[in-house]
Amino acid sequence: MNPETILYQLTETSEFMMSSVIVTKENNCIVIDGGNPEDMPLLKEYIGKRHISMWILTHAHSDHISGFIDEYRKNGLADFDIERVVYNFPPYEKWSKLEHTPCHEFFVMDIHETLPDFLSIREGLGERAYEVKQGERLAVDECTIDFLYTWHEGLYENPMNDSSLVFKITTPNKSVLFLGDLGPAGGDVLFEESRHLLKSDIVQMAHHGHMNVGLEVYATILPEACIWCAPMWLYNEPELPPYLANPEKRKKNHRTRMFGTALTRKWMALLGVRTHYVTGEGTQTILL
Ligand SMILES: [Fe+2]
């Protein structure tokens, strides 16, 4: 038995990614995403020979799950002892036939970035693959995992990020809310449907801290600590980063409510958060 539940938020080996390992008191793992193929050696170091009771895939973007897909293609995930792969991705067959979504070119590109790659290995995962539903509660040892949000029909402007799973992991001592890469529109739906469930001790900042959910979501979570899956250039970027500097372009791309990391950091300061775990500074070890 381990004396504590430990969350390792892994540092980037690739430029940009999200990867978490939770080690339970019974020495089993919950893995979240894993990052890019370059991030796999560090992930394996932290998992060691432990059993992975649950591997949660937040959404089908390469900076989150391309490492997982690559390991499957290399050797069928032979380096990992996985019991269950938990995910819920949007219906590719249906969405790929949609013709009139806003920012349609981006929509088409986004749903083709990684989702078809996952679907190509889905069958091979067999009974280990588990499509979780919103509202479902799962458990691994002392960790309870409540799934508060999955993809919604109609959120097409930022389709894959707004399809992120949102879930709260609760131990006897702490709760940590994972927001994946949820954007402003997904945040609105989450707030509308589940605001009464959001309060948590720790939050993983949505979408690496920028272009993410609104202040009201964070104000409702009211965390004491934030996890930033962000390299330092992103954590320290200017108030108006170059990719958001053109207001016409933001309007055209339906991104008027998307802001840089600097503003999110101001929000968290307003909420009185003093503890920040930033992966750009190295792998973060957090007791749960
Ligand atoms: Fe991401």
Describe the structure.
There is one protein chain. By secondary structure, this protein is an alpha/beta fold. It has one domain (6-287): 4-Layer Sandwich (Metallo-beta-lactamase, Chain A), CATH 3.60.15. It has 10 helices and 15 strands. The chain has helices at residues 40-47, 62-75, 92-95, 104-113, 115-122, 184-194, 215-221, 232-235, 247-252, 261-270, and strands at residues 6-9, 19-23, 29-33, 51-56, 81-82, 85-87, 129-131, 137-140, 143-149, 166-170, 175-178, 202-204, 225-228, 275-278, 284-287. Strands 1, 2, 3, 4, 5, 6, 7 and 15 form an 8-stranded mixed beta sheet that branches. The longest helix is centred in the N-terminal third of the chain and has 14 residues, at 62-75. The chain is globular, with a radius of gyration of 18 Å. The model has no long low-confidence stretch (mean pLDDT 96).
Quick summary:
28% of the residues lie in helices and 22% in strands.
Give short descriptive properties of this protein.
about 290 residues, alpha/beta, Metallo-beta-lactamase, Chain A, eight-stranded mixed β-sheet, seven-stranded mixed β-sheet, 15 strands, about 20% strand, globular, binds fe (ii) ion
